[in-house]
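Appendix C reproduces, verbatim, an entry submitted by the partner laboratory led by Prof. M.T., so that reviewers can inspect both the input and the predicted structure.
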Amino acid sequence: MAWYTVDNRESVWRWSIEHFIIAISLFFFEVVFKIATGTALFPAIIPIFLLSLAIGFALEFLISLLPDIASSIVRRLAVLALGVIFAIEYFVFLEYKVFYDVKTVVGGAGGVVNQFMGDALAVILTPSGIICLILFLLPFVLSWRIPFIKGSHAYREKKWPPLAMAGGSLAVCLAALLALGPFGESFFTRYNFQTSVSNFGLATSLIKDIRHSSSGGAAEREFHIERERSTSAIALEAGRKLSPLLFHVVGEYIDTDRFGPVMMDIDFSSLSGDYEYTDAYVQSLTPTTRNSMTGIFQGYNLIFISAEAFSAEAIREDLTPTLYRLANNGIQFTEYYQFASAGTTGGECANIFGCLATEGGDSVKGKAYDNNYFTMGNVLNRLGYNGWAFHNNTYDYYDRDITHNNLGYNNGYMGYGNGMEQWVEWQWPQSDYEMIRGTFDNLYCDAEPFNVYYMSVSGHGGYSWDGNAMSGKYYDEYMAAGLDYSETVAAYLACNMDLDRALEYLVGQLEERGMADHTVIVISADHFPYGLDSDGSLSNLAELYGYPVENSIQRDHNRLIIWSGSLEGREPIVVDDPVSAVDVLPTLLNLFGAEWDSRLLPGRDVFSEAQPVVFNLSYDWVSDLGTYFADSNTFIPREGATIPDGYVEATTRYVENKVNYCAVLLEYDYYGHIFGYQGDVQEVHDAGRANYVPPSTVEADAEETEG
């Protein structure tokens, strides 16, 4: 092993190379990562370069405090660790098509790792995967070609390496902040892991994410209360006194004075001061009002399906006729979005809690012991419904055996391993048809009123005829349709046929038993079908969609189904305003005539007069007037739209408030603060069962009354 002192010109040069290894390697990793994930190099490469140098110098400052031999070894191990981190994030991106924050990666341990490792190996062992893996390990290998440096006694006494690196880190960091330009607001006030990785690099984003996660400051966030009020005023100036949707529903505008506000009698002054900013924000909001759709499903059964990797394109009259029937004979949502953030967990968070997954992989886990007051499980449990939650994959996947027992379904949660194996065969993926048929026939077909939640799995990737049991199951039927798609897209469409056959059986049984006219079926995706592509190009997704997918708004478009037999044969109810998954919960609460407070949910009842704005965690938003992309601060108005003065700024602040509020709801037990903290889950379930009145008893009482 060669050692050099810093007492001559050659050794000074070697010292410079030695102490720049981390910074140079880090910037190299960032460039490879951006190219490999398909994100644009410019103009983000400038702040990424400066921030990489700042982080590299900061790490070098700490390492330079160690003795010579220790610092040289630790320096090279740091390069290896960084390369491994970048490689992991790269292969996670290939699998899920979004950047995963620390909580999501760590939260995916256990059962998720076993499945992901198999998927990851398939990606790694591709030519592009092998090349990227080599590139992420290359700096570590090359670092050993640089001779180890030994400083002289006099040189080390002056402590120039630590001081130089500390000063260099501060100077470059300041330069990076000055170079942020249009990204400045995203760096300081609109933190989001997805846009942060694109604009500031993975290393900076991981540091910010760890700091953000450990700060625990969501409840301390201040809301733009005055600007929130001005948003409503601007909407009124734009002529949006009532949603045009009401025109589609009833044929004329409704006099809202006839309808009371959707709010509860909450004495905020009597609450503790732990959530001062949030309480003030909620009180500042104007509640929406009841409308012509309020209570049209009151007393109905509810079956809610979070459909794995579902998409609007999976609805086809030739392949999935039942899905086609439900989508076109129920309430029709023509512009629906399920924004991807944390894989299935992110989608379930939006579907169940009406909240964006601001806590990444911990978003649902964090609610395991909270008061989840407004989930449909808890709301209908208080009304005496029989409730179940089901999943046909491993029952403790994502810790659902803990989280899904606290959603209010009074008969608890069942997955494969704690009961579902009675009806579902073990294969990959498992069959939605087997799950729905088995649970309906054996558990709730005679338990009206019932409230059932399904997390499906038959639509899961990877999509191939040999590797996907559901795709192979419907191979012959798909081929008979004579469609011209690549194998990957074809296998995706085929595996969704299992969900369709499950719904065909379910609807048929409901109609045969005379239950369809008072049962509601809701279907919302958990995320777009990211398993279609093994790289960052989204080319197969574009083939499925029929157009190039150029941004996350296009990527996350989807279709919401809300159907009841009572809607068949009636004038179609069309919702053509933008709607997202966080709007589903408040809309259902309105349709079921439940007691709720429109100020306490981030989403909106789509039949109300509330401004139609959907938003994601990147602070992008879509309204009836246009689309806003936060990272570039660009607003694209809709054709023919008239944009009032101040509309974009006010709506952007409105979205910032909503994202902040989502963070409070997930990071803290805010509903516990308002309604009382959650007691024993079993006691909540038992209380729901105590309210349950069997249908036979109700019918007998009615007959006696009539007699």
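The chain has two domains: 3-215, 225-645. Additional entries are available on request from the coordinating office.
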